[in-house]
Design goal:
- The chain has 264 residues and is α/β, with parallel strands linked by helices.
- It has a single domain (3-206), classed as 2-enoyl-CoA Hydratase, Chain A, domain 1, CATH 3.90.226.10.
- Helices cover 45% and strands 16% of the residues.
- It has 9 helices and 10 strands.
- The protein has helices at 33-48, 80-98, 115-122, 148-167, 175-181, 193-202, 209-226, 234-241, 244-255; strands spanning 8-14, 17-23, 54-59, 64-67, 104-108, 111-113, 125-128, 133-135, 173-174, 186-187.
- The radius of gyration is 18 Å and the shape is globular.
- The two termini are 30 Å apart.
- The relative contact order is 0.14.
- It comes from Stutzerimonas stutzeri.
- It holds the Pfam family ECH_1.
- One of its GO terms (biological process) is fatty acid beta-oxidation.
- One of its GO terms (molecular function) is enoyl-CoA hydratase activity.
- Belongs to the enoyl-CoA hydratase/isomerase family.
Length: 264
C-alpha cells in the first residue's frame, strides 16, 4: 500500500485527556499493520505519561470508529499458520489497550466492526451516537475466526446468546440495542458526544487514582482467570484462515471475483 493509504493513529493530550484518533476516513478507518503498530506504541507511551488521567479512542471523519482490519492485507496470507500469527498479533495489541492503567473510553460513531469492535470491547467505557453499527460480520465476509480471547470479550459483555448472533449470524447491533444490552453506557447526538465524553473523561481527574487503578486491575485479573489459554482456538483459526473459502473471500474483495461458500 502507498504511504498515503497506510493511515495514522493520531494522539493529542488536552487538559489531561489523551485523544487517540484512528485516521483513515477514506476507508472507514480500517486498520493497517502500521496503524496497529502505532496503537501499541501509543498505549505504552500513554501508560508512562503521568499527565494523562484518561484516554479517549475515536474514529476520524464521523462515519466510523474502525471498520475492521483492511482486507487487502490478507491477500498475502499463505496457510492457516499465518492466521494464527495474525490473531496473536491482534491479541497483543488489544491486551496492551485493555491493560492500560488509565480509564479508557471508546467514542463510537457509525461502523465499529471487526478489529474496531475488539478495540471498543477492550475499553472501560463506551459511548455512541445513534448511527452505531457494531459487530463482526465475518460469517458473511471473510469466513475467518476470532481468537478465543476476543470471543471471550464478546461473551463477557454481551453474553452467550448475543455473541452467537454477532459472530454466527453476522448480526450488527445498533445503538438502541447496544444501550439496552449494556454494551454502551449512553447514546448521544453527533453534535454533543465529544463534549459529553470529554466531561466524563475529565471527571477522572477528581477520582482517587489508586482506587481507579486497583479496581480496573482486579477486574482484569478476574477476567483473565475466566478466559481459556490463548492457544485454545488455534486449531479452528488454522482451519478457517487456511481454507479455500477464506482465500476466495479475500480474492472477492481484492479482485471483485464471485464465489460461493464450500465449507472447505
Amino acid at each position: 500500500m502507498s504511504e498515503m493509504s497506510q493511515g495514522h493513529v493520531d494522539c493529542r493530550v488536552e487538559q489531561g485527556i489523551a485523544w487517540v484518533g484512528f485516521n483513515r476516513p477514506e476507508s472507514r478507518n480500517a486498520m493497517t499493520w502500521s496503524m496497529y503498530d502505532s496503537l501499541e506504541r501509543l498505549c505504552r507511551e500513554l501508560e508512562a505519561d503521568p499527565k494523562v488521567v484518561a484516554v479517549v479512542f475515536h474514529g476520524c471523519g464521523g462515519k466510523a470508529f474502525v471498520a475492521g482490519t483492511d482486507i487487502k492485507q490478507f491477500a498475502d496470507f499463505e496457510g492457516g499458520e499465518a492466521g494464527v500469527d495474525y490473531e496473536r498479533r491482534i491479541d497483543s495489541v488489544i491486551a496492551g489497550l485493555e491493560n492500560l492503567r488509565k480509564p479508557t473510553i471508546a467514542l463510537l460513531e457509525g461502523f465499529c466492526v471487526g478489529g474496531g469492535a475488539a478495540i471498543a470491547l477492550a475499553c472501560d467505557f463506551r459511548y455512541c451516537t445513534p448511527s452505531l453499527k457494531f459487530g463482526v460480520p465475518i460469517a458473511e465476509t471473510l469466513g475467518n475466526c476470532l481468537s478465543i480471547t476476543n470471543v471471550s470479550r464478546f461473551m463477557d459483555l454481551l453474553g452467550v446468546a448475543r455473541t452467537k448472533e454477532v459472530l454466527m449470524a453476522a448480526e450488527l447491533i445498533e445503538a438502541t440495542e447496544a444501550l439496552a444490552a449494556g454494551l454502551v453506557s449512553a447514546v448521544f447526538e453527533p453534535g454533543s458526544i465529544h463534549q459529553e465524553v470529554e466531561r466524563r473523561a475529565q471527571a477522572f481527574s477528581r477520582r482517587a487514582p489508586l482506587t481507579v487503578q486497583a479496581t480496573k486491575e482486579v477486574i482484569n485479573r478476574v477476567l483473565a482467570h475466566r478466559r481459556a489459554s490463548a492457544d485454545a482456538s488455534d486449531d479452528w483459526i488454522r482451519a478457517c484462515y487456511g481454507s479455500r473459502d477464506f482465500q476466495a473471500a479475500v480474492n472477492k474483495f481484492v479482485s471483485k471475483t464471485l464465489f460461493e461458500w464450500t465449507g472447505k
